[in-house]
Amino acid sequence: MSDHHEVQQEALKAVVRRNTLEVQSGGNFELFDELFADDFLDHTPQPGGTPDKEGARRLYQALREAFPDFHAEIHWQAVDGDIVTTFKTYHGTHQGVVLGIEPTGRKIKFETVDAMRIRNGQIVEHWGVANLYYLLQQLDALPSSAPKMPETKDHHNEQQ
Length: 160
Description:
By secondary structure, this protein is of the alpha+beta class. It contains four helices and five strands. Helix 1 (3-24) runs antiparallel to helix 2. The N and C termini lie far apart (36 Å). InterPro entries: Cyclase_SnoaL-like, NTF2-like_dom_sf. This is Putative ester cyclase.
């Protein structure tokens, strides 16, 4: 693999990392405007959301309102052409309405995998899958007939 190729891949990952750490986790919405292309398209918008830049902004703001301490832990990133795939865990304390659920004050976490296409240093497309089932389980918001997921033991320290 050429050095140039590696540098390019790192640059693509950095765009996504800045969005995850500075916008989603840090609430920097001026940076959001820079990082997202005006013609941004979300292939997997949340129910009731819109697949454009404004829809992504509203989703991020809603998450920060529901979880004021919302932050992400990036586990790994992979690059394929101009698409960066990221596996991460979101953490937060439930202090605002989320998915129609009133605040519980509970600490939550859930995993997501997302793919973002980068063009000229900006995010132009997004595909994502979030483990919202696990989020709902932590908020006791699943129907009582739903099977309980087995508790997973965290091998690293819970006190992050």
